[in-house]
C-alpha cells in the first residue's frame, strides 16, 4: 500500500497538504476510510514516512528489463551452442 497514491500527494507534501489530501480522499471514496486513515498515520509519523520515502523511491522496472534482456541473451547463447553441436555431429 502506497500512502502517497492513496492520498494523491507528492513526497514533499507538508502537514497542511496532507490534511487537505485526507479530506479529499475521504470525499472521493476511492479507498476505504481505514486505508485513508492508515495512510495519513504513516505519512504523519517521521519514521514510517522516511521508510515509505525510501521504498517508494526505488524504481525496479529498469532492473526487471535488464534481467529480461540477460535471460533472452542466455537463451540465444544456449540455442547457438546447440546449433554448433548439431552441426559438428552432422559433418
Write a concise keyword list for the protein shown above.
91 residues; mainly alpha; Helix Hairpins; 2 domains; 80% helix; elongated
List the SSEs and their pairings.
Blueprint (H helix, E strand, L loop, with lengths): L2 H5 L7 H14 L4 H12 L1 H12 L3 H30 L1
Care to describe what's here?
The protein is an all-alpha fold and 91 residues long. It folds into two domains: 1-58, Orthogonal Bundle (Helix Hairpins); 59-91. Helix content is 80%, strand content 0%. The chain contains five helices and no strands. The N and C termini lie far apart (60 Å). The model has no long low-confidence stretch (mean pLDDT 79).
Short description:
The protein has 91 residues and is mostly helical.
The DSSP helix count reads: 5
Percent range for β-strand residues: under 5%
Order of helices and strands: HHHHH
Overall structural class, as computed from helix and strand content, comes to mainly alpha
* Helix coverage percent: over 70%
Mean pLDDT: 79
Between the first and last Cα atoms, what is the distance in angstroms?
A: 60 Å
Instruction: Report the top-level CATH class of the largest domain.
Output: Mainly Alpha
Amino acid at each position: 500500500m502506497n500512502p502517497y497514491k492513496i492520498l494523491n500527494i507528492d513526497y514533499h507534501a507538508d502537514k497542511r497538504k496532507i490534511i487537505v489530501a485526507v479530506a479529499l480522499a475521504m470525499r472521493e471514496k476511492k479507498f476505504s476510510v481505514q486505508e485513508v486513515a492508515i495512510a495519513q498515520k504513516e505519512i504523519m509519523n517521521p519514521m514510517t514516512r522516511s521508510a515509505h520515502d525510501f521504498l517508494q523511491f526505488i524504481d525496479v522496472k529498469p532492473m526487471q528489463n535488464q534481467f529480461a534482456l540477460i535471460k533472452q541473451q542466455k537463451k540465444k547463447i544456449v540455442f547457438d551452442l546447440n546449433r554448433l553441436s548439431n552441426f559438428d555431429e552432422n559433418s
